[in-house]
Amino acid sequence: MVNNIVIIGTQWGDEGKGKIVDIFTEYVNAVVRFQGGNNAGHTLIINGKKNILRLIPSGIIREDVICIISNGVVLYPEALLKEIKELEINHIPVRKRLRISIDCTVIMPYHIHSDIKKEKIYENIGTTIRGIGPAYEDKVARRGLRIIDMLNPNQLKTKINNILEYYNFIIPNLNEKYFNFSKMVEKYINIFKELCSMLCDTISLVHNLRKTGRKILYEGAQGSLLDIDHGTYPYVTSSSTTVGGVLIGSGIGPMHIDYILGITKAYTTRVGLGPFKTELFNKHGKYILYNGMELGSNTGRTRRCGWLDLVNMRYIIQINSISGICITKLDVLDGLEKIFVCIGYKNKNGNLINNFINIEMLKELIPIYYDLPGWKESTLGVCNFDKLPYNAINYIYFIEKELGIPIDIISTGPERLQTIFLSNPFD
Fold first, then answer.
1. Residue 300: its pLDDT value, please?
2. Domain 4-101+199-256 grouped into CATH 3.10.129.10
3. 193 is an annotated ligand-binding site residue
4. Beta bridge partners of residue 259, listed in sequence order
5. CA quadruple 416, 417, 421, 426: dihedral, nearest 10
6. What is the fold of 262-421?
7. Residue 308: predicted pLDDT
8. Which fold has domain 105-195?
9. Residue ranges of the chain with per-residue pLDDT less than 70
10. CA-to-CA distance for 286 and 290, rounded, in angstroms?
11. Count of other CB atoms within 10 angstroms of residue 219
12. Which residues pair with 261 in a beta bridge?
């Protein structure tokens, strides 16, 4: 029996995880967000209405689903309050079902200032400049503030004062003003008074739900190729976006995960800088960009587009022990005469390389493509596998054979019902 399912991205994010999580919330009692911050953006289209979630788990749209922001998340409280109020304006109740870990690291104003300056002067890696990296940096350096610190005003004043000594040394070198101590303390104490009813020990909550047989979904943000350890470093995020992040960021043990679903687009996209061997700069790239409406839900930045890369996919399947694949946005490829898939790389000596390697070596490699015939018919909204065009079915079968694991789900549009289930882990 499947009770605990993990949903993660297999690319550089933007794979369509939000829709798939939303579909699976019909079967679960709780959804856990285990890493990242408000740099993520999950777009849900429900009855034609767009909902964008950045911090709150995608299960919030369903009634009676408990939504948990666990200890692995770095939380910007102002962004969370804004998101709560946006949902409440749309008549979606939040406060009775949202639970937030008291051990979350808090994103402070100095993190955002530091992020902006570092991106501009030093790194230029395409960060969302929301303070995520500096907050994780403080967490690892053991100077980060956690939510529990916000609940003790005297302790908070001491800790912020000590941290500001460090940042007031760093920030002037970055041409920023000193931060106002008293205003910062007062502001954050008031914010967490408003959030207080939603705070709890989420590790105990998750384990109590598990022990009583409740079904739990662990929702990843970003994609596995952005993982701090396993991604295309240094063009990565600051957290563990792979299945290892579930264990660290929620407190669940590895033996309590029953099924891992990897989400991938029928092609590949990436936002910001970093290697992308199958990126397209021709008419096909523009076709995918416009047909797929490839703009970031959180940043609004245009996404880079390219063909599906099975070298990357095999690597991600391996490090995550993925059980099954969900292919999204199949309909975006409608109308293409030919579709290309990267099945390996070759080096300057013509030697075949079919495993993921570091980005320095990657610069020397050339993708090897296998071309398949496209299809003219529309796949938009098709919800029966046998009704897909013949060549679309062959495309799915080819990917499945190359990867060696089942494709369980195919998404053919943004709505819940525009989905094909070849296998449902909860059945």
1. 67
2. no
3. no
4. 5
5. 60
6. Adenylosuccinate Synthetase; Chain A, domain 3 (3.90.170)
7. 98
8. Adenylosuccinate Synthetase, subunit A; domain 2 (1.10.300)
9. 42, 44-49, 119-126, 172-179, 296-300, 357
10. 6
11. 30
12. 7, 324
The half-sphere exposure of 340 on its side-chain side, counting CA atoms within 13 A, is: 15
The answer to whether 43 is annotated as binding is: yes
CA atoms within 13 A on the CB side of 22: 25
Query: How much is the pLDDT for 261?
Result: 98
Token output for 304: 């880079």
Question: Please, are residues 136 and 238 in contact by the beta-carbon 8 Å criterion?
Answer: yes
- On whether the CB atoms of residues 99 and 205 are closer than 8 A, the answer is yes
Which residues of the chain does CATH 3.40.440.10 include? 4-101+199-256
321 is in an annotated binding site: no
The pLDDT of residue 117: 75
**Annotated catalytic, 42?**
yes
Active site residue 96: no
What's the predicted TM-score (pTM) here? 0.93
Nearest by Cα to 248 from 425, 78, 3, 6: 6
Q: Indicate the burial class of 204 (C-beta count within 10 angstroms; 0-12, 13-18, 19 or more).
A: exposed
The active-site residue out of 111, 139, 159, 230 is 139
Portions of the chain given CATH number 3.90.170.10: 262-421
Among the listed residues 60, 84, 103, 75, the one whose alpha carbon sits nearest the alpha carbon of residue 204: 103
Amino acid 91: pLDDT: 86
Asked whether the beta carbons of 12 and 271 are under 8 A apart, the reply is yes
